[in-house]
Structures are given as structure tokens and as C-alpha cells.
Design a protein that fits this description.
By secondary structure, the chain is of the alpha+beta class. It is globular, with a radius of gyration of 17 Å. The protein has one domain (about 5-105, about 140-165): Electron Transport, Fmn-binding Protein, Chain A (Pnp Oxidase, Chain A, Roll), CATH 2.30.110. It has helices at about 20-30, 70-75, 105-120; strands spanning about 5-10, 35-40, 45-50, 55, 60-65, 80-85, 95-105, 130, 135, 145, 150-155, 160-165. Strands 1, 2, 3, 4, 5, 6, 7, 10, 11 and 12 form a ten-stranded antiparallel beta sheet that branches. Strands 8-9 form a two-stranded antiparallel ribbon. The longest helix is centred in the last third of the chain and has 14 residues, at about 105-120.
């Protein structure tokens, strides 16, 4: 998402609050060490799990094994919510990303994403790419997904603010 429409929701913000800028929101997404993914099971129950994600080219990316619950859920319903932030009450910024998760299978995109994972975690996440998946020495193949946000919420703490970022309409 580039240059979104940004608005402050005064109902959930301090009277002196300013909207959180897109740059500040994007910085949280770029630097997050852990992100929580919520998918929906076939019976309608939510499934939440922590994972590592990479913000690249205006989308949040994650990987999962094809047999994992999140992959099973995504096969039936691609809509997800990803959250990250700071687990304190009065400082930091929490960010919520909503949108559909779509498979990334393009070899060039997978190569760039594998490099982004290596860079972000100082080489601790080593993915190779091929045959439309990631591979590593820990387990089997990993499906890669991109979430192009339909909405991003930023919750400022200290001075409490509720900011909404949505894509600009063409």
C-alpha cells in the first residue's frame, strides 16, 4: 500500500491526538520481530498463531507449511488479520493489517523475499526458493503468502490514537 488515505477516529482517540503517519505505521511493520496471524477455520472458529513476517513492496508476507492449520484455513478462506506491536499499555504503537492472503509463486518474487527474510533476521532465517515455495533445512516446503492490505489500523499509546489507513481509490 503506497500513500494511503489516513484518518483519525476521534471516538477512540485522546482529544489532543494526531493521526499516526503512514511512515510511522510502515516502520512498525518493517521492524516487527513477531506478527500474529488470524485465519478462520472451516467451522468458523478463529485460529491465531505467531509467525515471522516481512513487509516488502507494500504488502506483508509470511510463510507456512502446506499441512499447517493456517494453510488449511487459507485454502477455504483467504481473509486474514495480522497484528504486531508492543505489549505495554501506555507506550508504543500497535498495528493491525486486514486483507486477503494470496500465494506468491513467482520465482523472482520468492528470491527477493528469501533475501528479505535473511536480511531482516541477520541470517537466522535461511530460505531457498524453487518450485513456487520456500525451502529450508528445518522442514519441508513452505507456501509463501502476501497480504495486500485493504485496511491498516494503528493504535498509538501514551497519547491514545486510533488511525485508519486505506488504499487510495484510482
Amino acid at each position: 500500500m503506497k500513500d494511503p488515505v489516513t484518518t483519525l477516529d476521534a471516538r477512540f482517540s485522546d482529544t489532543d491526538a494526531e493521526p499516526t503517519s503512514w511512515d510511522a505505521t510502515q516502520e512498525v511493520l518493517e521492524n516487527a520481530q513477531i506478527t500474529w496471524l488470524t485465519t478462520v477455520r472451516a467451522d468458523g472458529r478463529p485460529h491465531v498463531t505467531p509467525l515471522v513476517a516481512v513487509w516488502l513492496d507494500g504488502a506483508l508476507h509470511f510463510a507456512t507449511g502446506p499441512e499447517e492449520q493456517k494453510a488449511v484455513n487459507l485454502a477455504a478462506n483467504p481473509n486474514v488479520v495480522l497484528t504486531t506491536g508492543n505489549n505495554t499499555w501506555d507506550e508504543g504503537l500497535d498495528v493491525v493489517v486486514e486483507g486477503p492472503a494470496t500465494r506468491v509463486t513467482d520465482p523472482e518474487a520468492l528470491e527477493r523475499l528469501a533475501a528479505a527474510w535473511r536480511t531482516k533476521w541477520d541470517g537466522r532465517w535461511q530460505f531457498e526458493w524453487g518450485e513456487d515455495v520456500f525451502r529450508n533445512d528445518i522442514g519441508g516446503p513452505a507456501l509463501v503468502f502476501a497480504v495486500d492490505p485493504t485496511k491498516v489500523l494503528a493504535f498509538g499509546k501514551g497519547t491514545f490514537s486510533h488511525t485508519r489507513h486505506v488504499p487510495r481509490r484510482a
